[in-house]
Amino acid sequence: MEPKYNQVKNSIRSKILQGYFKPHEKIGSESELMQSYEVSRHTVRKAIDDLVNEGWIYKKQGAGTFCAERSVSSDAVSNGTKNIAVITTYFSDYIFPTIIRGIEGYLSANGYQMTVFSTNNDPDLERKYLETVLSGQFDGLIIEPTKSALPNPNINYYLNIERLGIPYVMINAYYEELEPVHLIMNDAEGGRIATRQVIDEGHKQILGFFKNDDIQGIKRMKGFIKAHRESGLQITPQNIVTYTTETRKKDPVERLKEKMKVRHERPTAIVCYNDQLAVILLDVLRDLNLSIPGDVSVIGFDDSFLSVASEVKLTTVKHPKERMGVDAAKLIDQLIREKEDPTVSKKASSIVYEPELVVRNSTKDLKIKEVN
Amino acid sequence: MEPKYNQVKNSIRSKILQGYFKPHEKIGSESELMQSYEVSRHTVRKAIDDLVNEGWIYKKQGAGTFCAERSVSSDAVSNGTKNIAVITTYFSDYIFPTIIRGIEGYLSANGYQMTVFSTNNDPDLERKYLETVLSGQFDGLIIEPTKSALPNPNINYYLNIERLGIPYVMINAYYEELEPVHLIMNDAEGGRIATRQVIDEGHKQILGFFKNDDIQGIKRMKGFIKAHRESGLQITPQNIVTYTTETRKKDPVERLKEKMKVRHERPTAIVCYNDQLAVILLDVLRDLNLSIPGDVSVIGFDDSFLSVASEVKLTTVKHPKERMGVDAAKLIDQLIREKEDPTVSKKASSIVYEPELVVRNSTKDLKIKEVN
Prior knowledge:
Oligomer: homodimer
Largest interface: A-B, 41 and 41 residues
Number of domains of chain A: 3
CATH architecture of the largest domain in chain A: 3-Layer(aba) Sandwich
GO molecular function (chains A, B): DNA-binding transcription factor activity; transcription cis-regulatory region binding
Helix content of chain A: 40-55%
Organism (chains A, B): Bacillus selenitireducens (strain ATCC 700615 / DSM 15326 / MLS10)
Keywords (chains A, B): DNA-binding, Transcription, Transcription regulation
Protein name (chains A, B): Transcriptional regulator, GntR family with LacI sensor
Mean pLDDT of chain A: 91
CATH superfamily of the largest domain in chain A: Response regulator
């Protein structure tokens, strides 16, 4: 277990980072801290000494302990190199390395250093990395919000980042209430054109799998529903399968197996939240001795390397990936320059990428077959 | 504990209502059901017999058990009176009776019967009532979604309601992916004008309390942030307090006490998610011997009876309440007529009410004091 003084220390540090204490605001007396944390005076003193040594707080003889002034960019500026923090949900797999490569390429060519953190889509880890950013070593932040479809638990951290004047941009999704500069796909339109592809090929029973703790999933599902409606095709309710970060490895596979067991009104097409899920579901279909696209058509999303990795080349929706990374880096660079030099013309504004369908051979045109 | 056969029965019934089984689709064999529910043949038979008796499923000799065809409006139409289900989050308190009164007035004047359910903002209860609607006694549904800021766990039920051709409208909030006909306030604008009121009166430290499991809370918070930004006033991050349905009685009170303890940068104004919270916080302030608006200005939201119930008359934002109820009833009536008679001109469309500030005397103009 963590020593008690460390728990007290981390709690006070966390309150400073969240903005509970502002510079030169008094942090309760020793007795008050002893009471509120239910620890001994010795423990409180040890925590305070550490925080003083690390520059988080300072003591004034006879007056008590106060929150220190932290100047964010001074460290970073001192050696002339600017540091950008990049926080994504995932790091080393799927489309994330490509996005990060885009960011990295632009930043390093323009004299920035970059540090990448990944939250594994866990809000607690996001908080930890936001604390790191708030601790003052970074000049800017590029962040993909974690579990963006759920209420933002870290809003105070974001507001504190703004208060400290650290520019940030959000990628792939953003919290509406913060109205940050953002770079996103038009995911609803992506979901719509993917679904239209199989509807236009004559499919009537279409399964849709959507992750519903990220905004992208909600929007792609919206497009799925919209495509049905505009085609006058009634949605079979059980054909929409939602899953979360936690259930993503289990639920979609089980639900697909279940759906394919029943011969009556068996789906002939599947629209997937992303390519990553699509290749998992391809395996399930193969295990069931179903051919793609002969028996079942499958559409991915993102046009990642996975869409051409298997012997079935996936029809999918193009995600800007590397271009989004480059644009995010350009935007953060622009925001930093606007902040440092008020004469720089203000041109940092959000970008919405329109989706494009990449047609390969994972879907089958049922209307052509009928003609033969 | 619920008898096993009842658990099996409810599970199958629930699957029918969610659309897992469609009319005339086979419900697995006795052996399959025994296996998947891990119960005896006796239990499966008892569950099936009950479901057959209640008209949910039917048996065909030698072929198995099938989902029955349920015709939704036949029962309702038979006696000439149409039934509308109204599902709200709360029922007998706050602004809900007024909204329901508006609905009731219009519906009864137009020959409808109305049944009201309240979910207590619990998604499980919402599911239960949606099942009731799906079981076929209703011609239309007026619903306020439960915990609308969280991913919709009951989307299959809504889609099944659409498939059965039951018109529905959503009030106060709506799920974007469903794009339903809806009646809502412009909550972001409401949050903005409430906050502007105290900013324009010279307040700099403004506490905002927002419920973040309903979309209204997220939007009002968005307006709070926007008002600060457009006034060039930096938000103190810890001045935004979010809470949920579960923590609403405890968190805001504790956080307010905490904030008021520190004299340094004590908030001079409070913007509340709604009047209900405002009157609770008024009590806390009085207990702390703070006068309203002398020491602290307080703004409510909704212009409910509570805003004038205490001796402090609250400045607040007008919610359409009864008018929203009347309009919702008109819309559902219109949708039902459009459905029954294709020659009726299609004019049912969503309504967004623009907010209006009702200025009473719960805020203090700090600029006037400075002049004196």
